[in-house]
Amino acid sequence: MTPILLDTDPGIDDAMAIFYAMADPAVELVGMTTVFGNVYTKDGTRNALALAEMAGQAIPVAEGAQVPLVQPPNKPSDFVHGAHGLGEATVPDPKASGDPRPAHQFIADTLAERPGEIVLVAVGPLTNLALALQHHPEITKTVKHVVVMGGAVRTAGNVTKHAEANIWNDPHAADAVFAADWPVTLVGLDVTETIRCTPEDFAPMRETSPKCGALMNEAAAFYFGFHIQQHGVNACFLHDPAAVIAALEPSLFDTDAVPLSVICEGEEIGNTVEGMATDRRAVNVCIAADIDAVKTRFLRHLRSGVLP
């Protein structure tokens, strides 16, 4: 099993990634930390706790940053994920409370308990990781690997022509993460927009997992609507699940190792630029994926009936 600590802003594709991580027996989900982005942080914490309880799993959840490091916060993308992050689906209020530690402390403590074992997978803005680097620089030595869903290195962005949403929401944090001396893989729009699922792909989840599968279908319906309006396709991109799968099976992705920087002001704010800061440790940037294999793995586990 691969122990994963998931840093997330639970919108719809985050929920897909969370359920996938709980359904794949190759994953040990050791905890989740929440951040602003798709939703306000408090909504994200509620969603993370509620999804874990719905899946019947006791996963510690630590609330993290509510605003970016430097810039003013952008408004959550409710037109993509709905007012509270799960489209028009509703989940019961969670019974459990979050871990009392701030996310950056939770990250540092969790990595220190199992040095060199845990993969840190970040599928939202990178503020919690940047704060962890500031307060606990030793995490570059205690983490096994960092996998980031974000960026548009050799393709267009999805909030501007230059920028992908997670990086755009806190470019200063992202730049700090790419500048740090630790192993990073970037799973960005270069690959995630090529991995797509349809309503027909999701439908069988209702039969095998009546609770979680029904929620996933209901939430995904809102997401499909956005993709139809924005991209003209009745399918959704598997952004965040792809990052979890990359942490488990990196051989399914082709990468180029290049130093990365993020533009933090001006018209191109949020742009992930390769080769500009040549003194940085190279990031493994995913440039292609085995689309069928990634999609098949995702669907196989979410249709397996492991989740209730």
Structure explained in plain terms:
By secondary structure, the protein is α/β, with parallel strands linked by helices. The chain has one domain (2-302): Ribonucleoside hydrolase-like (Inosine-uridine Nucleoside N-ribohydrolase, Chain A, Alpha-Beta Complex), CATH 3.90.245. The chain contains 14 helices and 12 strands. The chain has helices at 12-23, 41-54, 78-81, 103-113, 127-135, 139-142, 165-169, 171-179, 189-192, 199-202, 205-208, 212-231, 239-248, 291-302, and strands spanning 2-8, 27-34, 61-63, 119-122, 145-149, 184-187, 196-197, 236-237, 253-258, 260-262, 272-274, 283-289. An 8-stranded mixed beta sheet has the order 3-2-1-4-5-6-12-9, with helices on both faces. The longest helix has 20 residues, at 212-231. The radius of gyration is 17 Å and the shape is globular.
Keywords:
two-stranded antiparallel ribbon, single chain, 8-stranded mixed beta sheet, Inosine-uridine Nucleoside N-ribohydrolase, Chain A, 308 residues
